[in-house]
């Protein structure tokens, strides 16, 4: 397909942010019964998929995978199949909230800690008053609480389910419970985006974004949630990704 480029076996979309937004909006507006699973994949996730069989299954079953990282864009350019731009989870979330505000969509937010979750939803209520909040729950739940969360999502049937439990855990959680999430039109992970929306983490300055250095800003300034790997350890995957995609013949 002309709109797909394979990077280490991961089929990345070559759609722009605007084109991706329109495609997702069409999915929600068509009111299709089948859940549409979008993955925002960066070099770390791409590299992890080389040895993680479950992640490979999830990637092969996804409806769309977008390039959430400048490394993916550079690797595609190296292959002679350029991707026009990054499509990050944060930018997609903002675009979908704008569309949801315009069209009256409902959203369910699952992830991050309780205080951040509540503050993020309060900010969304203020900035996007026509968005319907179908529900929310923090991401630090146990097995007993999980069934209640699933029941709440099934009851509320949100148009869009936003997962903020970190990658690839968000996608693995979705894959495990995909058959139970009937009525949801669209689901995708947004990493630490709710931390930014809540004000807990400051967004990268414009100059960092223009230089494609948002990853460095997160590395230096964004806090790491309890139980997650250190950002320095996670970024150690980048040299391996560069070698596998750009240096090795």
Structure characterization notes:
This protein has 249 residues and is an alpha/beta fold. It has one domain (4-199): Rossmann fold, CATH 3.40.50. It is built from 13 helices and eight strands. The strands form two sheets. Strands 4-3-8-7-5-6 form a six-stranded parallel β-sheet, sandwiched between helices. Strands 1-2 form a two-stranded antiparallel sheet. A hairpin with a 2-residue loop joins strand 1 and strand 2. Helix 1 (17-29) crosses helix 5 and helix 4 runs parallel beside helix 13. The longest helix is centred in the middle third of the chain and has 15 residues, at 89-103. The two termini are 24 Å apart. The model has no long low-confidence stretch (mean pLDDT 89).
Describe the secondary structure blueprint for this structure.
Blueprint: E1 4-7, E2 10-13, H1 17-29, E3 36-41, H2 43-48, H3 53-61, E4 64-67, H4 70-78, H5 89-103, E5 106-111, H6 114-127, E6 132-137, H7 143-156, E7 160-164, H8 169-177, E8 186-189, H9 193-198, H10 206-210, H11 214-221, H12 231-235, H13 237-247
Parallel strand pairs: 3-4, 3-8, 5-6, 5-7, 7-8
Antiparallel strand pairs: 1-2
Gist of the model:
With 249 residues, the protein is α/β, with parallel strands linked by helices.
Note the main attributes of this structure.
alpha/beta; Rossmann fold; 249 residues; 50% helix; single chain; 8 strands; six-stranded parallel sheet; two-stranded antiparallel ribbon
What's the Cα radius of gyration?
17 Å
Strand content: 15-25%
How many separate domains make up the residues?
1
In whole angstroms, the N-to-C terminal distance is 24 Å
Find the count of extended strands (DSSP E, 2+ residues): 8
Count every helix, treating DSSP H or I runs of 4 or more residues as helices.
Answer: 13
> How helical, in percent, are the residues?
40-55%
Instruction: Say what the CATH topology is.
Output: Rossmann fold
């Amino acid at each position: 397909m002309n709109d797909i480029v394979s990077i280490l076996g991961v089929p990345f979309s070559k759609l722009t942010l605007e084109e991706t937004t329109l495609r997702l909006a069409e999915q929600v507006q068509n009111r299709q019964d089948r859940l549409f699973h979008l993955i925002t994949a960066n070099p770390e996730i791409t590299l992890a998929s080389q040895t993680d069989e479950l992640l490979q299954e999830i990637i092969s079953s996804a409806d769309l995978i977008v390039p959430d990282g400048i490394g993916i864009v550079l690797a595609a350019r190296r292959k002679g199949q350029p991707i026009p731009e990054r499509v990050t989870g944060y930018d997609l979330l903002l675009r979908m909230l704008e569309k949801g505000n315009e069209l009256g969509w409902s959203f369910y937010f699952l992830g991050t800690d309780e205080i951040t979750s509540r503050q993020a939803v309060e900010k969304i209520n203020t900035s996007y008053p026509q968005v319907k909040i179908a529900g929310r729950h923090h991401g630090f739940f146990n097995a007993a609480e999980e069934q209640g969360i699933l029941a709440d999502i099934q009851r509320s049937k949100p148009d869009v389910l936003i997962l903020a439990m970190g990658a690839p855990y968000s996608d693995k959680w979705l894959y495990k419970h995909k058959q139970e999430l009937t009525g949801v039109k669209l689901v995708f992970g947004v990493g630490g985006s709710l931390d930014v929306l809540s004000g807990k983490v400051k967004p990268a300055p414009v100059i960092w974004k223009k230089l494609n250095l948002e990853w460095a800003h997160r590395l230096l300034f964004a806090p790491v949630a309890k139980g997650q790997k250190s950002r320095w350890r996670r970024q150690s995957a980048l040299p391996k990704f560069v070698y596998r995609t750009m240096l090795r013949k």
